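hi! just following up on the protien thing from before. the input was this:
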Amino acid sequence: MGDYVIREGFAPYQDYRTWYRICGDLDGGKLPLVVAHGGPGCTHDYVDSFRELADGGRPVIHYDQIGNGRSTHLPDKGEDFWTVDFFLGELDSLLDHLGIADRYALLGQSWGGMLGAEHAVRRPAGLRALVIANSPASMALWSEGAAELRAELPEGVRATLDRHEANGTTDHPDYLAAQDVFYKRHVCRLEPWPAEVQRTFDAMEEDSTVYNVMNGPNEFHVIGTMRSWTVIDRLDRIEAPTLVFRGAFDEATESCVAPFLERIPNVTGHVFPRSSHMPHVEEKADCLALTEDFLARCEAG
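and the predicted 3d structure came back as:
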């Protein structure tokens, strides 16, 4: 842990509370970085490594989206409640609460990058830099990519997945074991998983409300409300300079991120050669250096 001040609190949003943590000094001059976690339905824990950017004086804000982690849990809410607009409103509320809405950078990982793109197409005046990490530009592309990766799994693993999905028994131990084969190839290739990554998955197991409603039972069987989501036709509206990255073994395949690189006017792309879906832990030093270099250039500009 670096030599910086850490402050935690809760931001009000509607009738609920969003937990946040600030590492570093918001008044120190450097562009604050807000980190939006994935899921939908994860927690901030697995993207915690970005806090190390505060070692260089950059304030870094993590938060748990409502429904998850230390924020308000709402296990009885259904499809009409958990929407992209709800989470966009939460992000805006957090920026206002922290007093940084006029000047900030946003990094979104996986679903967080989808949220970040939705935020950026609205052209918020204070957004100075956007990082889209391991995210698809549409869920159709995500599902197509997942099908391609799934086809490369051993035949027995594929058969187990197919059988339990057809029977609606995706909570069966055999299905979960087959699911892990995919995850260890395309979600996080470190063995064992870092503790902060495991904490997020443990938290999702305790309360999977948001993930199940919006996504589905896992990363490659997308049957939730987000299954038809796309931002492709709006990407040309993004004005903020944007960094897009993925891992070479990522479940966010090359075709998933291609529209970002083709349609965002001011965009830089990068592929981490030894990573899957979590370069921020799989190739942490390189990922943090790339991110900081990008933010510093945006700051200077």
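The two ends are 30 Å apart (CA to CA).
The chain has a mean pLDDT of 96.
cheers
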